[in-house]
Specification:
By secondary structure, the protein is an alpha+beta fold. The chain has two domains: about 25-215, 2-Layer Sandwich (Beta-Lactamase), CATH 3.30.450.20; about 320-495, Hypothetical protein af1432 (Orthogonal Bundle). It has helices at about 5-70, 80-95, 205-245, 245-260, 275-320, 325-345, 345-355, 370, 380-385, 390-395, 405-415, 435-450, 460-470, 480-485, 490-495, and strands at about 100-105, 110-115, 130-135, 140-150, 165-170, 175, 185-190, 200-205. The two termini are about 60 Å apart.
Length: about 500
């Protein structure tokens, strides 16, 4: 984060944060207060509705107790008494505008009188809404039970629904009844019926409706917020331009030098204060660094040149031990660079691989001459010895922290790995083989097959090309094979340019 950004951020933080906190807290307070007031109003309305429902239910219960104590109930088994009681129950049902029925049950739960004559003589198995025992006036024993089969639809007449507010019922905390609307954002209050705790009356309010009144405040808050930001930002920019311009110029130059490494510039500050002294000292430091940089660049170029020569010479030494020419490593280096560029590696990486690839067989310096220069095929023991040159080359190089030698270690270690996993020394497969190893493998095999060796004559081109097509996705990366054939003329030009004499 730049110094300018830090100053702006500091000023904005110091100025805006308290302002934002005050505005947000005020908005939150108003919102909470409105929410609480609305909730209280809902609770009051719900309480009144529940109170009216409770009075209605208590009236029904009192009427049932009154009927249960009538003398007519003691003659329940008298002739035609069921009709007289049923008429009484039917009259009470109509009086209460009741949805449901009153039933008089004997001890076997058989309906012996009912506000619905069709139910007489039927069994009543469900849980009654209300039940009142009927006692004998002679011995006070229970001789029957007056029950109420009550529909919760009766309660809807106490619900005053509106467009943004409505009632519904929740039964046993899990069953919702008569919920006629659905709001995406809602607030609700609920109360259980005192008489029937398993019945909860819910009053739901559309939250978007009652929050509409707050939108005007939110628009005002947003406008004030933006206006405050513009004012404070303008003040911050003014302070920066007037007070810290010299520091920013110094910072800009530092950023430029960091990106370009160009130490030939200097900062122009026309002040005699501490910042001016700092700028003068900084310019003197830059001049010293610039002079040292020129010397260091010259020395680095000499070191890199020497390093490349040493690496190439070591590679040539490794090849010469197996009676191969120095031009082999040159050709492999050029093939590798060309493949790397066509594969999509950067110019820097391609050049790195070109310099490292001559070291692919450096491990051969540790292979006995009897094995290395044997004119015929290796036996199993000799092949095992020969195959160690990849591991030996890696062990020679991988301890170095130089990028070039690290790349050479990868090439030495993996240039005999195969795409299908059948190579050595680790049997790596596919893209688990480093791209440096995959490229060098193809470059090395192409040049080795086309060159005379102590154990074979050079192959003709068609034989080499046939093998490459057969070994696509087996020995070699299929993408590299495709690149090779798509740019074959360029590889043949390299071979002709560095042909053995």
């Amino acid at each position: 984060m730049s110094f300018r950004t830090k100053i702006v951020a500091l000023i904005l933080f110091v100025s805006l944060v308290p302002y934002i906190l005050i505005m947000v807290n005020a908005g939150s307070f108003l919102r909470d207060k409105y929410y609480i007031n609305t909730t209280k109003e809902l609770q009051t309305q719900l309480s009144l509705s529940v109170e009216r429902i409770e009075q209605y239910l208590q009236t029904i219960k009192r009427d049932m107790k009154f009927i249960a104590h009538l003398d007519i109930m003691n003659d329940i088994y008298s002739q035609d008494i069921d009709h007289r009681i049923s008429n009484l129950l039917e009259k009470k049902k109509k009086e209460l505008h009741l949805i449901g029925n009153f039933y008089l049950l004997d001890k076997n739960h058989t309906i012996i009188a009912s506000s619905d004559m069709h139910m007489i003589a039927k069994k009543f198995h469900q849980e009654p809404f209300f039940s009142v025992p009927v006692h004998s006036t002679f011995d006070d024993k229970t001789i029957a039970t007056l029950v109420l089969d009550f529909s919760l639809k009766n309660l809807k007449k106490f619900f005053t629904n509106a467009e943004d507010r409505y009632y519904y019922i929740v039964l046993n905390n899990n069953k919702t009844l008569y919920k006629e609307k659905h709001f995406n954002n809602a607030i609700d209050v609920k109360l259980p019926l005192p008489t029937k705790k398993n019945i909860t009356i819910v009053l739901e309010q559309n939250q978007n409706k009652f929050l509409t009144a707050l939108k005007h405040y939110e628009y005002m808050f947003l406008a004030a917020f933006i206006f405050g930001i513009l004012i404070i930002t303008s003040v911050a920019l003014y302070m920066i331009n007037r007070l810290i311009r010299p520091i920013l110029e110094l910072s800009s130059l530092v950023a430029y030098i960091t990106q370009t490494k160009d130490y030939s510039k200097s900062v122009q500050v026309d002040t005699n204060d501490e910042i001016g002294k700092l700028a003068k000292a900084f310019n003197n430091m830059l001049f010293g660094i610039y002079q040292a940089q020129k010397e260091n660049k010259k020395l680095t170029q000499e070191i890199e040149s020497t390093q490349k020569e040493v690496v190439f010479t070591m590679g040539a030494i490794g090849e010469s031990r197996s009676k191969e020419t120095g031009n082999h490593v040159k050709r492999v280096a050029e093939y590798s660079r060309l493949l790397a560029l066509f594969y999509g590696l950067s110019e820097k990486e391609a050049e790195m691989l070109k310099q490292a690839s001559p070291m692919h067989d450096i491990g051969k310096v540790a292979i006995p001459d009897a094995v290395l220069n044997k004119p015929g095929r290796f036996n199993a023991e000799e092949r095992a010895i020969m195959d160690t040159h990849a591991e030996l080359g890696y062990q020679m190089l991988h301890h170095s922290q130089r990028p070039l030698l690290q790349a050479a270690a990868i090439v030495a270690y993996e240039h005999h790995e195969k795409w299908d996993g059948s190579g050595y020394p680790r049997g790596l497969q596919g893209e688990n083989i480093h791209i440096y190893g995959r490229i060098t493998a193809l470059a090395d095999v192409f040049d080795a097959l086309g060159s005379d060796r102590v154990y074979k004559k050079a192959w003709d081109d068609e034989r080499i090309f046939t093998l490459f097509r057969e070994e696509r996705a087996k020995h070699f990366d299929p993408k590299l094979i495709d690149i090779f054939f798509e740019n074959l003329e360029k590889f043949l030009e390299i071979r002709d340019q560095f042909r053995d004499t």
